Amino acid sequence: MAAEKQLTPRLILSILSIALLGFTDIMLETALNVSFPTIMTELSVNSATVQWLTSGVILLTSLVIILSPWLKKNFTNRSQFMVAGIISVIGIAIDAVSNSFWLILFGRLLQGIGGGVGLPLMNNVVFEQVPERKRGTMIGLASLIVSFAPALGPAFGGFLTEHYGWHMVFWVVLPVQIISLGLGWFTIKQLDPLVKEKLDLIGWILLSTFFVSGILAIEHISSHGFTDPVSLVTLTIMLLGLVGYCLYARKQTHPLLDLAIFKSNIFAYAVAAAFTIQTINLTFNYAIPMGLQLVLHQSSQVAGFALFPGAIGFAFMSILSGNLYDRYGAKLPNALGLSLFGAGMLWMVLMPFTVLNMTLGFGLVQLGAGCWFGNNMTNAVSHVARKFHSAGNSIFAASNNYSAAIGIALAAGIISAFQSQSTNIAQATETAISWTYRLDLLLMVFAFAFSIIAIRNSYRTKTD
């Protein structure tokens, strides 16, 4: 096995092809965010409805991601990639020619299925085939490629929407998706042997119940409060799904996601930190473009370019911090990332809402996030047994996508609630965003505590 684990050009290209699949998925997500006000007007939908073009896709992606350990055991890396890519291409093509909101949502959900297979597959290939001493750098390289999507998405989404219409966003992404399919067909290989295993359908249904009811609960609570009957019902269903799966999985020999991985304090706290920080991160991705357009009356193009410097910073910090991880361990890049993230948040909370301040604040937040995310995951998964690597990658990918959906639904719900109570949309939106930032500041305290505990434990535990 040691001889097989070599960083070859073919392996790098295979990781590149899978990363491009993630690139197109996130490119569409971030490009559409700045197009939401235009789509709302053209298709006559409100902000709470239009956000399902993103949060609905992220949610479905999470439901597919939790199948990743089973897919890895039963299907080759290349077959998973090709099926995911083809489904995603079909969804993009539907959206490129559709003018019905519900048909567009259907196409986006197909893209979510493709992304749900591709996102954990990239990390599975890295942990399966890349030597341990190079993991940080390769995770950083893959993150660099994927991270160019939020860098390019808002700027190009705003530009294309303003000059050519939002349909053009899908036409631009389509050839990138096709190129990644061709590259993956020739380069992706398989090292681990396949082990045919029956799908744990009951476990998947229980986990799906938890994920779906959870995002519905968050969206409803943010706009109607905890005491609303629908909020209470969805919260109850969410808890029943989670408790039901925990009780069910304990009795299974091969559960869909083995909860024994959470016995590692390093992994458990790292996942909690990633979940919280991703929730915060996506509230910014939703709220800033909305605020710049509805409060400051800027164009979608300006809103997109305001996010551009931060997204570029995220991309380059991913590869730089991966190299720091390989050379010095997790402590340095994680501390640097948390410091930059916190500084950016405080900037946005304390400074007036202007284009310049939002650009600078979001830039600092993204520098910190790019430095922190990949290293947090690599450190956590590297500290669990090899048999848990696939499950660990799936849990991180599902957690990031689920928390992203929660972040978007949370911001959309708060903004929609304030807007519905006022005839002054600009003032209501500004007030809603300020309250969203205050909530983010509280969540940041918990996220930082989780991350620090995970890092401290990792230096007391020998890597497996």
- Percent in strands: under 5%
Q: Which structural class matches the secondary elements?
A: mainly alpha
Mean pLDDT: 84
Alpha carbon gap, first and last residue = 16 Å
**Assembly annotation:** single chain
Listing every helix as H and every strand as E from the N terminus to the C terminus, the arrangement reads HHHHHHHHHHHHHHHHH
Envelope shape: globular
Measured as a percent range, the helix fraction is over 70%
Task: Detail the topology: elements first, then pairings.
Layout: H1 9-33, H2 36-43, H3 47-50, H4 52-65, H5 68-74, H6 77-97, H7 101-129, H8 135-163, H9 167-187, H10 201-224, H11 229-250, H12 265-294, H13 300-328, H14 331-350, H15 355-382, H16 389-420, H17 425-458
Helix pairs in contact: 1-7, 1-8, 1-9, 4-7, 4-16, 6-7, 6-9, 7-8, 7-16, 8-13, 8-15, 10-11, 10-16, 12-13, 12-15, 12-16, 12-17, 13-15, 14-15, 14-17, 15-16, 16-17
Describe the structure.
With 464 residues, the protein is mainly alpha-helical. The chain has 17 helices and no strands. It is globular, with a radius of gyration of 21 Å.
Task: State the gist of this model.
Helix content is 81%, strand content 0%. By secondary structure, the chain is mainly alpha-helical.
List keywords for this structure.
464 residues, mainly alpha, globular
